[in-house]
C-alpha cells in the first residue's frame, strides 16, 4: 500500500507494480464511504459491452478485436494514435491548463472485460487531481487536458501512457491498452503559473505573494480529502513564499500573520493525519510563536492535534498537558475526551513494556 503522493510517471518508468484499491475511498466528511460489497454491486451498473466487441450501432459483424473496432470510431488525440478519443457529450469553455485542479468522474476498462477495473461513479466519489503533477497516469492527465467543462468522452490509451510493460497486479495485463470514459465536472484555475512567470523582484511583492498564497490555500483544501501529501506540498509552497515576502506596511504584516496562522494550522492537521508527528510539532510551535504576545489565541483544534503528535512521539505527559488546554477551550468536545483515554491506554502499554524489559534485564544479570 502506498501512503501519500504517488507519481505514476516514475512508477511506470521504474517498473514498479501497484494495486488499485477500489473498495475503500479516502475519508471525506461530505461523502459517505461505501463498503466493498456495495462497490461490487454498484460497479455492475457501469459495464461496457463495447469492450467485448458489442456495438449497438453496428448491423454487420466485425471480426476485429473490440478495441480495434472502437479505435476506428475515434480520432487521434495525438498524431501517432497513442491516445485516441471520441466525444460522447460536448462541453463548453476553456480547457484546463497545467497546475489547474480538476474534478472528474471516470470508468476504466481493459479489453475483453466489460466490468470496469476502476470506477469513481461506483465509489460515489469524483477524483480530484492537479494537472501536470504526475498524480495520475500520463494518458489520463493528457486526456483531461483536452476536455472542456461538462464534456464526457472516451479515450483509448496505449500502454506506455497507462500501466506500461508491467501492468497492475492481476487487474491489468502487461502492455495493455486501456479505455477511459471520463466526465469533466469542475476546473479550478490556479495562479501558480502567473506567479512563477513574474520577474524575481515582483515575487517578493506582498500583494502578488498574498494572492498566490490564497490560491495555494484553495488548492490545498481541495486536495486534502483526496491526497494529504499533495495538500501538504501546496501549503508549504505558500508558507515559503509568504515567509520571505517583503512587508512595507503594518496591515500587510497583519494579513501575512493571519494567513500564516491558517497555513501552519492546516499543516498541523495534515501532518497529524499523515502520522508525521515531528513535522506536526514544528508547525504547532510556529503557531505558538505567532500567538505569543498577540491577541491571536491558539485554538483547541491546534492543541488537540499537537497532543496527538506528542502521543505518537511517546511524550505522554506533555501530550496530556496540551490536551488539557484543548479541553479548557472546548470542554464538551467528545474527541478530546476520547483522546485522553487513548493517551492513558498507550502510556500504560509503554510503562508495562518498560517493566518487562527491566525484569528481563534483571533476570539476565542473575
UniProtKB/TrEMBL annotation:
<keyword id="KW-0802">TPR repeat</keyword>
<dbReference type="InterPro" id="IPR019734">
    <property type="entry name" value="TPR_rpt"/>
</dbReference>
<protein>
    <recommendedName>
        <fullName>peptidylprolyl isomerase</fullName>
        <ecNumber>5.2.1.8</ecNumber>
    </recommendedName>
</protein>
<dbReference type="GO" id="GO:0051879">
    <property type="term" value="F:Hsp90 protein binding"/>
</dbReference>
<keyword id="KW-0677">Repeat</keyword>
<dbReference type="InterPro" id="IPR001179">
    <property type="entry name" value="PPIase_FKBP_dom"/>
</dbReference>
<keyword id="KW-0413">Isomerase</keyword>
<dbReference type="InterPro" id="IPR011990">
    <property type="entry name" value="TPR-like_helical_dom_sf"/>
</dbReference>
<dbReference type="Pfam" id="PF00254">
    <property type="entry name" value="FKBP_C"/>
</dbReference>
<feature type="domain" description="PPIase FKBP-type">
    <location>
        <begin position="99"/>
        <end position="188"/>
    </location>
</feature>
<feature type="repeat" description="TPR">
    <location>
        <begin position="300"/>
        <end position="333"/>
    </location>
</feature>
<dbReference type="GO" id="GO:0034587">
    <property type="term" value="P:piRNA processing"/>
</dbReference>
<dbReference type="GO" id="GO:0007283">
    <property type="term" value="P:spermatogenesis"/>
</dbReference>
<dbReference type="GO" id="GO:0003755">
    <property type="term" value="F:peptidyl-prolyl cis-trans isomerase activity"/>
</dbReference>
<dbReference type="InterPro" id="IPR042282">
    <property type="entry name" value="FKBP6/shu"/>
</dbReference>
<keyword id="KW-0697">Rotamase</keyword>
<dbReference type="GO" id="GO:0005737">
    <property type="term" value="C:cytoplasm"/>
</dbReference>
<dbReference type="InterPro" id="IPR046357">
    <property type="entry name" value="PPIase_dom_sf"/>
</dbReference>
<comment type="similarity">
    <text>Belongs to the FKBP6 family.</text>
</comment>
Amino acid at each position: 500500500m502506498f501512503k501519500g503522493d504517488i507519481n505514476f510517471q516514475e512508477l511506470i518508468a521504474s517498473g514498479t507494480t501497484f494495486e488499485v484499491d477500489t473498495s475503500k475511498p479516502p475519508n471525506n466528511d461530505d461523502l459517505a464511504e461505501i463498503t466493498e460489497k456495495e462497490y461490487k454491486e454498484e460497479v455492475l451498473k457501469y459495464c461496457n459491452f463495447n469492450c467485448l466487441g458489442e456495438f449497438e450501432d453496428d448491423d454487420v459483424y466485425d471480426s476485429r478485436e473490440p478495441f480495434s473496432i472502437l479505435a476506428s470510431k475515434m480520432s487521434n488525440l495525438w498524431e501517432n494514435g497513442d491516445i485516441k478519443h471520441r466525444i460522447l457529450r460536448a462541453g463548453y469553455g476553456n480547457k484546463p491548463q497545467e497546475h489547474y485542479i480538476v474534478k472528474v468522474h471516470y470508468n476504466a476498462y481493459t479489453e475483453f472485460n466489460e466490468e470496469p477495473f476502476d470506477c469513481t461513479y461506483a465509489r460515489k466519489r469524483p477524483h480530484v487531481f492537479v494537472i501536470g503533477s504526475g498524480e495520475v497516469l500520463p494518458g489520463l492527465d493528457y486526456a483531461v487536458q483536452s476536455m472542456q467543462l461538462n464534456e464526457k468522452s472516451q479515450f483509448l490509451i496505449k500502454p506506455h501512457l497507462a500501466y506500461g510493460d508491467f501492468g497492475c497486479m492481476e487487474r491489468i495485463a502487461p502492455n495493455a491498452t486501456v479505455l477511459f470514459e471520463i466526465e469533466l465536472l469542475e476546473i479550478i484555475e490556479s495562479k501558480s503559473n502567473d506567479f512563477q512567470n513574474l520577474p524575481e523582484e515582483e515575487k517578493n511583492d506582498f500583494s502578488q505573494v498574498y494572492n498566490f498564497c490564497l490560491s495555494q490555500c484553495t488548492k490545498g483544501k481541495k486536495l486534502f480529502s483526496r491526497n494529504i501529501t499533495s495538500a501538504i506540498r501546496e501549503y508549504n509552497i505558500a508558507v515559503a513564499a509568504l515567509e520571505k515576502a517583503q512587508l512595507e506596511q503594518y496591515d500587510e504584516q497583519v494579513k501575512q500573520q493571519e494567513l500564516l496562522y491558517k497555513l501552519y494550522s492546516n499543516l498541523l492537521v495534515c501532518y497529524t493525519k499523515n502520522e508525521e508527528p515531528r513535522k506536526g510539532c514544528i508547525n504547532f510551535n510556529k503557531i505558538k510563536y505567532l500567538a505569543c504576545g498577540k491577541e491571536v489565541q491558539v485554538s483547541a483544534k491546534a492543541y488537540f492535534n499537537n497532543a496527538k503528535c506528542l502521543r505518537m512521539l511517546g511524550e505522554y505527559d506533555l501530550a496530556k498537558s496540551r490536551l488539557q488546554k484543548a479541553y479548557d477551550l472546548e470542554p464538551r468536545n467528545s474527541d478530546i475526551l476520547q483522546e485522553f483515554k487513548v493517551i492513558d491506554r498507550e502510556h500504560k502499554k509503554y510503562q508495562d513494556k518498560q517493566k518487562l524489559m527491566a525484569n528481563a534485564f534483571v533476570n539476565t544479570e542473575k
